[in-house]
Design brief:
Distance between the termini: 47 Å
Radius of gyration: 23 Å
Number of strands: 8
Strand content: 15-25%
Oligomer: single chain
Structural class: alpha+beta
């Protein structure tokens, strides 16, 4: 079993079952476990020989939300213990939660690499996402939202520089447009916005004939 000496196999198995949170399921067939638990068993198999480095390829794909949260907790604990990991994932929330450094790929090429705060600062500086939700009554859209992207019937979002007083002025214009402002949020851009920025940059460069 992954090079573990036979006298130590039971000891390692128990230790790994505890690490992945399944000691009470030790006698169950793997096929009887949920998808999320099976992914934890996959990780347990890799841990049986006490590796110093772990390569994870889409570990949370197909796992329900609660299972993904439990899996993220386990991986976070392993990282904190000093285990090195490379995580390949399309789940950008998972990457933000677990990664010390990220590499974002666009069309098979690494377009950004570094710590998340550094990459966000380089791409967006002081710009922030402003997201507003209006009431569902009335079809009239306030003129000020023409520069916003519509995410849903009542939700708009825009990436913008904010000077003192800008939000107050924006909210006042929204109220003056005859629609009730239900919620307004200012959000720091994350990896999802960075990927969109890099993809847009790639398309622009391609149109200009750049590589």
């Amino acid at each position: 079993l992954m090079g573990v000496d036979e006298p130590h196999i039971d000891e390692r198995a128990e230790a790994v079952l505890t690490t992945i949170g399944l000691p009470d399921r030790r006698d169950d067939p793997v096929g009887a476990l949920s998808g999320g638990m099976q992914r934890r068993v996959n990780i347990g198999v890799a841990l049986i020989c006490e590796p110093r480095f772990l390569l994870l390829d889409e570990p949370s794909v197909g796992v329900y939300r609660q299972g993904r949260a439990r899996l993220a907790d386990i991986l976070g604990e392993l990282r904190s213990s000093g285990l090195g990991m490379v995580l390949v994932t399309h789940d950008l929330e998972e990457a933000e939660l677990l990664a010390d450094r990220v590499a974002e790929l666009v069309d098979g090429s690494v377009r950004a690499y570094g710590t998340i705060p550094d990459l966000i600062d380089q791409a967006f500086g002081e710009r922030r996402l402003v997201r507003v939700e209006l009431d569902a009554h009335g079809k009239k859209i306030p003129e000020v939202l023409q520069r916003f992207e519509r995410l849903a019937d009542t939700v708009w979002e825009s990436l913008m520089d904010l000077d003192p007083g800008d939000l107050d002025a924006l909210f006042e214009q929204l109220r003056g447009g005859g629609r009730e402002l239900k919620e307004g949020r200012v959000i720091r851009p994350g990896l999802a916005e960075l990927l969109g920025h890099l993809t847009e940059s790639q398309e622009t460069n391609g149109a200009m004939g750049l590589t």
